[in-house]
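Q: Sequence in, structure out?
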Amino acid sequence: MTTLRRWAARLGRSHDRVRHWGADPDFPEHVGELPPRGRHGGGIGEQYFDEAALDAWLASRPDLAPPERIDPSAAVIDPGERITLGRFAGLIGKARGTVNQHRDRPGFPQPAADGLYRAGDLLDYWNTRPGRKGKATKDSRGGA
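A: Exactly. Output:
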């Protein structure tokens, strides 16, 4: 048994994204509910699900597969080499715009004064970026 929050963390996905999947008519039903954890006991508790059922449902939905990760040993570049985003995109087989759209997202490496990026930093970011669609915000709580 697991909650959607824990299952999302195991998948490397956001809790909001996984909750959105619950709108699918084939999404597994929850099997129970944890007691409320509010300060005064109010509100509803978090639902829990059969983890095997969630995994089976996800396996039946290839369109929701997490983004592929690049094996650092497969990259034919020294991690310390400084490169442009366009060169990095070519190395990982993506369009330049696909990589460029991540520049303003939290955790994206900053370029050096000459505008070049360290290849290892880009690869680390690419392999750990959130696997969800939509623009990431700098502060998900509504701040700037």
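The chain is about 35% helix and 10% strand.
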